[in-house]
Amino acid sequence: MCSPGKTNIMPNYYYKAIEEGGGVVTGELFADEERVVVEELQSKGLIPLSVSLTGSKSSSSFSMPELFSKVKQKEVLDFTQEFSTLIAAGMPIDKSLRILLDVTDGDKLKSIISEVLYSVEEGSTLADAFATHPKVFSRLYVNMVRAGEAGGVLDLVLDKLSEFLESSQQMREYIVSALIYPALLVFVGLSSVIILMTFVIPKFTVMFADMNRALPTSTQLLIDISDFLTDYYLLIGVGLIALFTLFKSYVNTDSGRRSYDSLKLKTFLLKDLIRKIEVARFSKTLGVLIKSGVPIINALSIVKDIIENRVISDSISDVLRGLKEGEGISRPLKLTGQFPPLALHMIVVGEETGKLEEMLIKVSDRYDKDVRNSLKRLIALIEPMMILLMGVVIGFIVISMLMAIFSINDIPF
């Protein structure tokens, strides 16, 4: 039992665990770190499902209406980690699914687990049951589970899946968090300009009109722009929405998507970052699939589908063709021209030494770090450029108005 003073120092952990009879228990423990909580639960004969700091519980009193509900990647990750723990503890698949049905919070995911459980009890394989929900369980997920079932190593495969999903989730969260500040800068800057042009300048325009004096060219240009924005704001709004809709419609076509992805690979600030992201995704996915027992041809077919850039995805078709013709994987990858020399050399080494999957994981780890560093450099470059641009625009507005005021009062500027 912890002393009163100790509770203020040691973190409070919230846990979910399974008893020997299959019942679910929850509670809180004070400990120095998560590992201590896990060991204490195991010493009591419990199987830990999840352990988290009390302030980071996944449950919430607020729930979205079913109409808008959607299974998040974080929910799939939690489900996979808990499922892996239960299978590794020796529990049958059906019993594990029943337990997960009880401990899952999200209504949408709970419904899907119920359907998966029903399919398994009716004689379906776990992979086939997952495959009926492609929006939640991807082809990668399904094929890894299928390989695990076939090889009798489902617990190991689920563990690898957990690591893969967790790594993908961390990268996604890192990118989103890194873009928050630039997005905030854009929002604040645009809002400032819109307020100045639609509310502040029109008040000065009325004052200048009463003076019947010629205005400086920059001031007149500013007033014309302000008048246009205030008179045609509805038309401008509709036009921007129409342009965005047309752009989205074009990008959703095959030719449009290829053209757009090709343009991104030629853009000065984006091309290296996008290529590194796709190389990391390709390497990690292919490495995890091969390590899980998925045949390399099937694995490449799956990887082709999850690569987001259509130009790079299309190049994987050439790699797949070369592999089927007995060329291996490194030579066709080199011929695509989409993979950096370092990644190609590491893949060649992996192919020659018979440790391709291990080398692919190393390639992925290397380029994950490169993505983080490239993103930091890109944001470090963009932030001052955005601040400078907004400063120039707002400065132009202020100086133009001051020039008009000084000219009206015959004050030299």
Written overview of the protein:
With 413 residues, this protein is mainly alpha-helical. The chain has two domains: 54 residues, no CATH class; 236 residues, no CATH class. The protein is 71% helix and 5% strand. It is built from 16 helices and three strands. Helix 12 packs antiparallel against helix 13.
Number of strands: 3
Unreliable residue stretches: 1-8, 55-68
The number of distinct structural domains comes to 2
Mean pLDDT equals: 82
Structure summarized in a few sentences:
With 413 residues, the chain is mainly α.
Notable features of this structure?
disordered N terminus, 413 residues
Q: How are the SSEs ordered, and which strands pair?
A:
Elements: E1 12-18, E2 24-30, H1 34-43, E3 47-53, H2 73-88, H3 93-103, H4 107-121, H5 126-131, H6 139-151, H7 154-211, H8 217-231, H9 233-251, H10 254-264, H11 271-291, H12 296-306, H13 310-324, H14 330-336, H15 341-353, H16 356-408
Antiparallel strand pairs: 1-2, 1-3
Helix pairs in contact: 2-3, 2-7, 3-4, 6-7, 7-8, 7-16, 11-12, 11-16, 12-13, 13-14, 14-15, 15-16
